[in-house]
Amino acid sequence: MPWWLGTALHLGVASRGLKFTAAERLGYARLALRDVEYRRGPVRVTVARIAADTPVLWLSRWATGHPSPVLAGNWLVEIEPENPASVATGAPPGDRGWRPLRAILQRVAAQLDRWLPRAQIGEGSVRWSGGSVSPKAATSGERTLTTKGLAFRALTADASLAFPAGSDDRRLKVQSAEGWIELRSRGPEVAGELMWWGQPSTLSARFDRRGWLPA
């Protein structure tokens, strides 16, 4: 029976850093959470509404490999700047650069593929101290994140990022009015092709353990 879900969810997710203001039953099969907030370290995620299967049904479909999509809309990810106290005391910053980010993306992709294999996401934004990216919509499935109308500074494009199972490859495709980019990352190497303003190019780079500039 679904009547107990609201209370159970409040008790169950609080220890995970997750909060929400209300749980709405959508019949016996679906459940919607409103004003969802999640915090971990410098990252804060808020979502106006998330709809998914009820826990028991979701678990049964997940176990049989037929999960229903999770729906989310009006979301925001905020990444706080580095703690000023650590800078003042000279504490060493964490690893930064393409290869550390690549490792983080791999861990995130593995967890999403395991627990959130299918999702449909509405308009939202990721913000940090140096800027933001804002897609109009996004979907995830089969270890691929696809975005529509992704805005970054003056660029607006459709993009997809794939993490093929059993492979060290990471594949990025970007398509905009100015042209297209296809990149493949494997270990410390990044290579690909692009066509921008009618001009074709190829590129290859090798990155050190830290840093954003290629070695």
Question: Can you walk me through this structure?
Answer:
Helices cover 19% and strands 48% of the residues. It has 215 residues and is an alpha+beta fold. The chain has a 15-stranded mixed sheet that branches. The chain is globular and about 55 Å long.
Beta-strand portion reads: over 45%
Overall radius of gyration: 20 Å
Helix content: 10-25%
Q: What is the mean pLDDT? A: 84
Taking the sheet with the most strands, its summary is: 15 strands, mixed
Which stretches are poorly predicted, pLDDT < 50 over at least 5 residues? 86-92
Number of strands: 15
Helix-strand makeup class: alpha+beta
> What is the H/E order?
HEEEEHEHHEEEEEEEEEE
List the defining traits of the structure above.
215 residues; alpha+beta; 15 strands; 19% helix; globular
Write the layout of secondary structure elements.
Elements: H1 5-13, E1 18-19, E2 22-26, E3 30-40, E4 43-53, H2 55-63, E5 70-79, H3 84-88, H4 98-115, E6 119-121, E7 124-128, E8 131-133, E9 137-141, E10 144-152, E11 155-162, E12 169-176, E13 179-186, E14 189-196, E15 199-206
Parallel strand pairs: 5-6, 5-7
Antiparallel strand pairs: 1-3, 2-3, 3-4, 4-5, 6-9, 7-8, 9-10, 10-11, 11-12, 12-13, 13-14, 14-15
Briefly characterize the structure:
This protein has 215 residues and is α+β, with helices and mostly antiparallel strands. It is built from four helices and 15 strands.
